[in-house]
Write a structure and sequence with these properties.
Na+/H+ antiporter like fold; transport; mainly alpha; globular; 16 helices; antiport
């Protein structure tokens, strides 16, 4: 039996209802909501016309849905972080971004090359699987802004802060490596494009994204909290839709100016958060974005499950499965563990922060974005990435609750 167009409204309604109830039901168990939604998608795929849900054929729809989900999540994590930005305060973040991420990309690309992939395809796979996910990692991230009189920046939970801030920035910082893979596939020898890539795709676009985000966040912060006229003082209106308007507007501006919009959105959220930390309007903004993020995430995971039932993983080879297993269980934990050496983190905190490099919607977006230049290997790439995302959802989803409880108990005993 297949569900027709009208029946999809029923499916959507039931999915949203289940999504509202599942997190409460699963709170005490080692089953995260993302695991349940992927499972629900697998079952739904039995009844839905599977040809409609194929990320290889519908790459445009997949790209834009994943793009919107990431944007909303980036705004959410930016608003949730209480810690002011700074080189020393964010030391663990810079290590994860500047050491662990490039090392992980190189390791995955090296393994891909060893199993027979072309260098450009191997680099693309490493870059696609590089970003940790701001969407699916909510169980191991900071939970929201601390507001009200006397609210102090969160300093004690280094693991949640590290994973949240890393996920906020590395979605944008993966873009230069995606472009490097595309250039290697389309422009040939590295010598013909390396300088342009370094100056523009790595440095120039990143700086534009940072500048747009900081400027827009500062301006909107002034409008929200300090505008001389109450008409323009957005915080007094209590309209949380400002968060969505800011997300889309900042992203669009950065993209028009040829900067990295993902970076701009996260920086804008951090800047807005810093403009008036004690105001409880931040809670309204974060709450609205969190609800929208949940809806979009449920949709992505359901569609992923349906696509798997429809045959997304059929081209998966032992080599692809091995790459996914190595990334989740060895490469990410090892590279992140080494990058966090000589930090204030306890040994157990370093292991948890290193292990929870959740792969998810960011990988889906990047493959949909760049896959058209790798048509020969595209089915295999989708199968490998799909397998890795599901593996990450299951492994990290099962481990998140008990390991974070363990860290919280140890932290409480130490205080």
């Amino acid at each position: 039996m297949e569900i027709d167009g009208d029946g999809l409204y029923l499916v959507a309604g039931v999915a949203l209802l289940v999504g509202a109830v599942l997190p409460r039901l699963l709170r005490r168990y080692a089953i995260s909501a993302p695991i349940a939604f992927v499972g629900a998608g697998l079952l739904l795929g039995v009844f839905v016309e599977r040809g409609r849900v194929n990320p290889v054929r519908e790459s445009g729809v997949t790209e834009h849905l994943a793009e919107l989900t990431i944007l909303v999540a980036l705004m959410g994590v930016g608003l949730a972080i209480d810690r002011p930005i700074g080189w020393k305060r964010w030391a663990v973040t810079w290590r994860l971004l500047l050491v662990a991420m490039p090392a992980c990309i190189a390791a995955v690309a090296g393994v891909g090359w060893l199993v027979g992939l072309a260098p450009a395809t191997a680099l693309l796979l490493g870059a696609v699987l590089a970003p940790t996910d701001p969407v699916l990692a909510s169980d191991v991230q900071v939970q929201g802004p601390s507001t009200g009189e006397g609210a102090e920046p969160e300093e004690d939970d280094e693991v949640r802060f590290a994973l949240t801030s890393e996920a906020g920035l590395n979605d944008g910082l993966a873009f230069p490596f995606i472009y490097a893979a595309v250039f290697a596939a389309t422009k040939g020898a590295v010598g013909g494009w390396a300088l342009e890539w370094f100056a523009w795709d790595l440095i120039g676009k990143t700086l534009i994204g940072v500048a747009v985000g900081a400027g827009a966040g500062w301006l909107l912060g002034k409008m929200a909290f300090e505008a001389p006229s109450r008409t323009f003082r957005l915080a007094d209106s209590r309209e949380p839709v400002l968060a969505l308007a800011m997300t889309l507007g900042v992203y669009g501006l950065a993209q028009v100016l040829h900067g990295y919009g993902f970076i701009a959105v996260f920086i804008a959220a951090l800047t807005l958060r810093a403009s008036e930390r004690s105001h409880d309007f931040h809670e309204d903004l974060h709450g609205f974005i969190e609800q929208l993020e949940h809806i979009l995430t449920w949709g992505i995971l359901l569609l992923l499950g349906v696509a798997i039932t429809g045959g997304l993983l059929k081209p998966l080879t032992w080599a692809g499965a091995a790459i996914g297993l190595l990334l989740v269980l060895v490469l990410r934990p090892l590279t992140a563990w080494l990058s966090l050496a000589r930090t204030p983190m306890r040994r157990s905190e370093r292991w948890v922060a290193a292990a929870f490099g959740v792969r998810g919607v960011g990988s889906v977006f990047y493959l949909a974005y760049a896959g058209k230049d790798f048509s020969t290997d595209l089915p295999w790439l989708w199968a490998t990435v799909g397998f890795t995302v599901v593996l990450s959802v299951v492994v990290h989803g099962v481990a998140a609750t008990p390991l974070m409880r363990m860290l919280d108990l140890r932290r409480d005993r130490a205080t």
